[in-house]
Design brief:
Layout lengths: L10 E6 L4 E6 L7 H9 L7 E5 L5 H10 L5 E6 L2 H13 L6 E5 L14 E6 L4 E2 L9 H7 E2 L4 H11 E12 L3 H10 L2 E10 L10 E8 L6 E2 L3 E2 L10 H5 L4
Parallel strand pairs: 3-4, 3-6, 4-5, 6-9, 7-8, 10-12, 10-13
Antiparallel strand pairs: 1-2, 9-11, 10-11
Helix pairs in contact: 1-2
Length: about 250
Amino acid sequence: MSFINYKDPEVTHDTLFDGELVCLQHKNGYRFSIDSVILAHFIRPDKGDILLDLGSGCGIISLIMGYRWKDILESITGVEKQSSLVTLAKRSIAMNGFDELCQVIKGDVKTLFQTVDRESFTKVICNPPFYQSGTGRINKNREALLARHQISATLADFISAAAAAVKNRGATYFIYPARGLGDLLLLSKKHRLEPKKIMFVYSYPQPAKSAELVLVKCLKNGGNGVDVMAPFYVYNEKNGAYSTEMASYYAR
């Protein structure tokens, strides 16, 4: 794959999969973290899927899904509020040759259906801002601040939008701090998103350590019953190397 060369001193060219995928990121703005990589690999799409990446940031989840599953997906649409990130994601899509598969639209989860149609996606992927307004470490960079904190939209806004965007019996996928699982499940069920799979993410195997993150798959108007999956460990041990499964998420 030959990449288009964009030269911008404020943008880094970061690669995954032994250099086969490039993601542009602002040096001093929002930069994706490991949670996006984990969420992108939690999903197993079906042939002909129409995906929505809600709050897509720099487009990393759409890019990973395109790289892994381009042969079976029909389309991937990213929706992002910040114009600077929309521009960056569009450039990354072009660089990776995904123009026919992926698109990124400037839009707000609160007014999502001014941008896309209701119940028009088979699966919705969402890595919402983790921190409520006024909590967590406050980033001085506004782009990063809006991406990480629930300032312009709350968790409830993201779940409501995801539920309305996905088709009946379609799936939604979320990653969120494990301590916020109660809110995530309560809001999901309120919007007829029935939890079907839950996986807790730990830094490394240590019984006394609490889970850091949780992955949740829901089915719109799904039946009762949830599968609590085996835990996922990012590292083999404290200050150690990636676990075998985590390392595979970066492999070609």
